[in-house]
Every structure is written in structure tokens, then in C-alpha cells.
UniProtKB/TrEMBL annotation:
Pfam families: Glyco_transf_7C, Glycos_transf_2. GO terms for molecular function: glycosyltransferase activity. This is Glycosyltransferase family 2 protein. Signal peptide: none annotated. Its EC number is 2.4.-.-. Residues 3-110 form the Glycosyltransferase 2-like domain. The keyword Ligase does not apply. SUPFAM superfamilies: Nucleotide-diphospho-sugar transferases. It comes from the Bacteria.
Length: 357
């Protein structure tokens, strides 16, 4: 009757284990259970895989998307495509579930309603303890805007093409699904009679300049503006221009290790525009693009030409190049196997993308 999906990327294994244990110890064991790992580091993945083997009920799916933006929506949709039960539940990997959580879900299940559950947030000290569910002291309660743990009628969620895979990184994807369900005609129900899920504290990953993982400095803001427009446009169905819930194929990602086409460009506006145009019709295989900053000599010569009102080349700051390129990937190439690195110390971007997959 119930399918649950949890999504993960590099979350602390102590947190993951508490989450898995809480589902493993449910009083009602009649539910389907997916764990989708979307791009954890290889060394971490070995430890996670070992942990998951202790839970025979889990349908464990790994996606080799380490060098890509985090896509919780695609991870959820991969499980949604496989779900056979009438109700589909999205949960966070940092939650601890009440022992009667599944029992409560089944009592609430209604094909015309969407139910989501109030969070009880734990502080750092409490989260580091190992206790029975009821003994964890809640620091504060989440309100209606916290939408991360929701039960959907599966058929309706599939009919509106699942979660919107435009959302990459973090923010707004859960609320978006709620809004579109409401637009479809379903009733949103916030369950706060008792706390059925407790959220474990964890620090936010600090982004140092040494990090080379894909990161768009304005993506969270874009996600929220996109959500605002979803509301104004009264949207229901999404993911209409490309496949949703597309399963990753390992051989297509392994091909990224041996690109057959290489291109090196500088961070000029014209070079970047030309690259984006080329990508539109390039199916030559696995392309490796390196984008480097213009030399200091060229930069200052160009600056002088601009000052003297002579013809000059428009140079785009590398952070803006990064954001523009990632936006194009999200809009057009998010289903393609790719690996993306931005070395902010060396001011160098390397994109490897399998355009034929």
C-alpha cells in the first residue's frame, strides 16, 4: 500500500543509520522502501553500501552522478517510476520516524488528499544521542512551510510527471509538488496532532574556495523565483520537454573517462556564447571543454581599449561563466552524463559531457 523513498548524497553515516533503523523497526512492516543515492563520493559509497546490506527490505539504487549538481527531484522520480503501491511517501535521510509511522500513514491514506507531517527538530547534542523515539527532546517544531515529508497518491503524482527536475541544488522542490497537487484538485493536509518525524541536526557543508564540486551561487534564489512563477502560472504538469525519472546507465558515465573531442576556450562572452550554440547540435560523442581566464596582459590591454572607447572584447568573470554554464546544463542537458569541475583557485572550469547518451 505504501512506497517510501529516501534520497542521499554524502550524508553522515551515523545520521543515515538512525534513519534506516527507525524504518527497520516499524510496527507495521508492510511497505516498500527505496534508498536512492545520487552521486555520493566513491569512498563514502563503499561504506554506505556496507551499511545498507543490513536492511534486506531496502531497494537500493546508486547513481554515478558525483560530478553533477545535486538533483533530489530526479532521485525521487527514479523511485516513483518503479513504485507500484497506491501511496508514495517522500522522506529525508536525516529524519527519525516514529515506530508507528507506517500505521499512521495507512490510517490517513486518501486518494483525494496529500498529507505532510510536522517536523520535530533536534539540537546538536540531542541528535548525537541514541534513544527511543519518544525520548528525543524536540528543540522546536516545524510549521506548515516545512514540506519535506509527504504522502502522495501515486497515480496523481505520476500523472503530473512527478517532481519538477528543473530544481537542482536545494530549495523549493517539495513545496512545488504540493502546489501542483493542489492545482490538480487535491486537498493539502498538514498533520500536527503529534510528532511522527524528528529531524536530526547536521551542519551545512561549508563551501571553501578549494571546493571544485558544481555550485551555482544564485541557484537557491532562482529556484524560489521559479516557484513563485509556478504559483502565478497555475502549473500542474512539469517535465514535458525531456524524460523524467531517467535511470542512470553506468557505461554512459564511464565513457566520461575517455573523451574523444577536446575544446579549450577563454572566458570571453563570444567564446561562451559560441560554445552554448555548438552544444545545441553537437552529437560527436564525449566532449571535454576547458575554460580558462584570459591572461593578465590581455585583460589589461582590453581594459585600456574599453577606456579609450576602442573596439574591445567582452570578458565575462569566471563566476558568471560558471553560473551561466550551469544554468544551461540545468535547462537543456541535465539528463546527460556529465562531470563538472570549477577550480576557483586556478580559475579553471572543466566540463566533460556525453552528448550521445
Amino acid at each position: 500500500m505504501i512506497t517510501i523513498v529516501l534520497t542521499n548524497r554524502n550524508r553522515n553515516l551515523d545520521i543515515v543509520k538512525k534513519c534506516l533503523e527507525s524504518l527497520h523497526n516499524q510496527s507495521d512492516q508492510e511497505f516498500e522502501w527505496f534508498l536512492v543515492d545520487y552521486g555520493s563520493d566513491v569512498s563514502y559509497l563503499k561504506s554506505l553500501t556496507k551499511l545498507v546490506k543490513a536492511y534486506s527490505k531496502i531497494q537500493y539504487i546508486t547513481c554515478p552522478t558525483n560530478g553533477q549538481l545535486w538533483s533530489k527531484c530526479r532521485a525521487i522520480n527514479i523511485a516513483l517510476k518503479k513504485a507500484q503501491n497506491p501511496y508514495f511517501v517522500v522522506g529525508d535521510i536525516d529524519l527519525i520516524f516514529h515506530p508507528d509511522y507506517i500505521t499512521n500513514l495507512k490510517q490517513l491514506a486518501n486518494p483525494s488528499q496529500v498529507h505532510y507531517f510536522q517536523y520535530g527538530f533536534l539540537n546538536e547534542i540531542e541528535s548525537n544521542q541514541s534513544k527511543d523515539f519518544d525520548l528525543y527532546k524536540v528543540d522546536f517544531k516545524g510549521q506548515e512551510e516545512v514540506t519535506g515529508n509527504t504522502m502522495f497518491p501515486t497515480s496523481v503524482l505520476k500523472e503530473i510527471n512527478g517532481f519538477d527536475e528543473f530544481y537542482q541544488g536545494w530549495g523549493a522542490e517539495d513545496t512545488d509538488a504540493h502546489i501542483r497537487m493542489k492545482n490538480y484538485g487535491l486537498q493539502l493536509c498538514f498533520f500536527n496532532k503529534r510528532i511522527l518525524v524528528k529531524h536530526q541536526w547536521h551542519g551545512k557543508a561549508y563551501r571553501s574556495k578549494k571546493s571544485t564540486h558544481p555550485y551555482h551561487s544564485q541557484l537557491e534564489s532562482i529556484n524560489h523565483k521559479y516557484l513563485e512563477q509556478t504559483v502565478k502560472l497555475n502549473r500542474t504538469v512539469v517535465n514535458t520537454k525531456m524524460k523524467w525519472g531517467k535511470v542512470t546507465i553506468e557505461k554512459d558515465y564511464l565513457a566520461l573517462q575517455t573523451p574523444n573531442v577536446f575544446l579549450k576556450i577563454e572566458n570571453t562572452h563570444s567564446s561562451l556564447s559560441a560554445l552554448l550554440a555548438q552544444l545545441q547540435h553537437d552529437n560527436s560523442g564525449v566532449l571535454n571543454v576547458e575554460i580558462v581566464q584570459v591572461s593578465k596582459t590581455q585583460y589589461w590591454k582590453n581594459k585600456l581599449k574599453k577606456y579609450l572607447r576602442k573596439k574591445y572584447i567582452e570578458i565575462t568573470p569566471m563566476e558568471r561563466v560558471n553560473n551561466n554554464l550551469l544554468e544551461e546544463i540545468i535547462k537543456t542537458y541535465r539528463n546527460k552524463p556529465y562531470n563538472y569541475i570549477f577550480d576557483r583557485v586556478k580559475n579553471r572550469i572543466v566540463l566533460t559531457i556525453n552528448l550521445t547518451a
